[in-house]
Amino acid sequence: MKRRDFLAAAAALLSLEAIAAPQKKNQKAPARSAKKSSSKPAASRKKKTAATRSTKAPARPIAPPPSAENSVIDNPPAGTSATRLPPVRAAEVPQQWKQFEIVTTLKLKASTPCRFWLPLPLDQDGLYQRLNSHQWQSNSPKLTLSRLPDGQLEVLYAEWRGGEEAQLQLVTQISTADRQFDITRRSMAPEREDILRRALQASENIPNEGPIRQLGERIIGRIKDPVAQAKAIYDWITENCLYNSTLAGCGSGNVNQQLSSGIYGGRSADINGLFVALCRSMGIPARTVPGLRIGPSKLLHSLGINNGDATHAQHVRAEFYVPGYAWIPTDPSDVCRAIARESMGPHDSRLDALKRVLFGVWEMNWIALNNGNDLLLPGDNARQAFFAHPKVLLDQQALDSLNPLFTPYTISTRSL
């Protein structure tokens, strides 16, 4: 035999032995088990096969769609911003703070009993607003400061018996710093669960089921990330809502009325109320935040006050909550307001920049007053959808304090 034929035959033989080796082991194993087992080796093999099959992982159940009952705080979608959290960083106190003085004056000749409710700035020191002081003078025989927990209501209440001029002056000093959402930073302290539950509930004017949920599902489509869901809702509102400056005050805040009419928009309480309702219907805690513009805007002239007169400068904003990021500020209403008052077209570069800014930013030429809905004011039986405007009752009759031609009170501001 030639040398090359010998090498080829040896290689083939080694290969065959390598393949046959495990087979020989498998053939011997049953023989040994047969000696130890008394009977029915085949049945034991069937049991082994069945046991092997039973170890397969069961199919994962399909998660129910997001809703107010199945919220992001209960069941955050895997791989979203609610589960892939950035590292915890200590909150940084803003370096640039602005100080303002706000003077509210009431002068009203009242021959009959008169009552007055004034919303006060939110008294919770944070990273964007700090209440410094209140000072007041009044001839009211009954004047009280009242508040509900968790920032739902801050109010000054005064009453007069009648037959005299009702007089009150409140001077408030407050500091603000621009508020900005940072996606690379998460909060060290999560929000209390009872507060988040309240921010998912329906109210008389803000629904979270039925038509609003159907609209929300159409808007977000297959988007799973809660921040991206809120951004999709924000974009839809800025493209489909119209700002109506003919309405009084901040609007009614009635989202049900918009759904039934199919006409979306209004003023700040209506537009940002719609944003909150859509977020809640998708399981994202959200709330409206009534407030007051107190200074000029660096963004656009129409988004601030420029003469110090804040009597009719009430404005409602919104914020939503995502685990790990705390409350995220937003204001789609001001985008719609700018489109209407600054004559912005769809291709205006200023509009694109404003849309990017107002999702995640509050310019703090504005102060937050409270965050409650369907409120009962002390000594009053009529519920308030939201509380931004002072309320005056003269002999149980509400005065039209939203009419610019008749205002029993004035609010002025100045920068310190």
Question: What does this 3D model show about the protein?
Answer:
It is a single chain. This protein is globular. By secondary structure, the protein is α+β, with helices and mostly antiparallel strands. 29% of the residues lie in helices and 26% in strands. The strands form 6 sheets. Strands 4-5-2-17-18 form a 5-stranded antiparallel sheet, with no helix packed on it. Strands 3-6-1-19 form a 4-stranded antiparallel sheet, with no helix packed on it.
Number of strands: 19
Strand content: 25-35%
Distance between the termini: 109 Å
The number of distinct helices, counting runs of at least 4 residues, comes to: 9
Q: Give the mean pLDDT.
A: 85
Q: Roughly how much helix do the residues carry, as a percent range?
A: 25-40%
According to CATH, what is the topology of the largest domain?
C8orf32 fold
What global shape is seen?
Answer: globular
Radius of gyration: 33 Å
CATH class of the largest domain: Alpha Beta
Number of domains: 2
| Sequence stretches where pLDDT stays below 50 over 5 or more residues | 1-40, 46-52
CATH architecture designation of the largest domain: Roll
Task: Give a short account of the largest sheet.
Answer: 5 strands, antiparallel
Helix and strand element order: HHEEEEEEEHHHEHEHEEEHHEEEEEEE
Structural class: alpha+beta
Lateral arrangement of strands in the main beta sheet = 4-5-2-17-18
